[in-house]
Design a protein that fits this description.
Elements (H helix, E strand, L loop, with lengths): L8 H11 L6 H12 L6 H9 L3 H10 L11 E6 L2 H5 L2 H12 L12 E6 L11 E3 L2 E3 L4 H12 L1
Parallel strand pairs: 1-2
Antiparallel strand pairs: 1-3, 3-4
């Protein structure tokens, strides 16, 4: 699990200052903050808005529009299950339900022991061999219950 820094507005302002002169700076700032803190805390929004001379609503819109931005740091491992049309046609709903039941969390949630975060993703580019999932940075195609259970076991180890 990556070691994230504890939220500190001073540190956030340093990160914002490093990126604020880039074209389209909002997204690079949000990614940089999430890389350092493990998430984009709500408290970061006014800092970003002030630095970029945009409204808090515009910053909030970016954070909530893109699925990769989180409000809380993730678990040690992240399992993303593709919920796009091709995967749905291939039975991913039952697999997603199985993952939620086995982990005891809803999509977007993290297990109580902070080992696994379960997230939806909307296309991993493996439509030809759906359903698909991603454990951390590794992708898996043609999932079935057995392979999903292996991924869940690996994620929890």
């Amino acid at each position: 699990m990556p070691k994230y820094e504890t939220w500190a507005p001073e540190r956030a302002n340093e990160i914002i200052a490093q990126h604020q002169d880039q074209k389209g700076a909002a997204l690079p700032i949000l990614h940089a903050l999430q890389e350092v803190f493990g998430c984009v805390p709500l408290a970061a929004e006014p800092l970003i808005a002030d630095a970029l001379n945009i409204t808090r609503a515009e910053v909030h819109g970016c954070v909530t529009f893109y699925h990769d931005f989180r409000r809380e740091p993730p678990g040690r491992r992240t399992l993303k299950i593709c919920l796009a049309e091709s995967c749905q046609a291939s039975g991913v709903r039952a697999l997603a339900k199985r993952a939620k039941e086995k982990l005891g969390v809803e999509m977007g949630g993290t297990t109580a022991d902070a080992r696994v975060t379960l997230e939806p993703v909307y296309c991993l580019g493996l439509c030809h061999s759906s359903p698909a999932a991603m454990l951390d940075k590794d992708v898996y195609a043609a999932l079935d219950e057995e392979r999903l259970d292996e991924l869940l076991k690996e994620a929890q180890s």
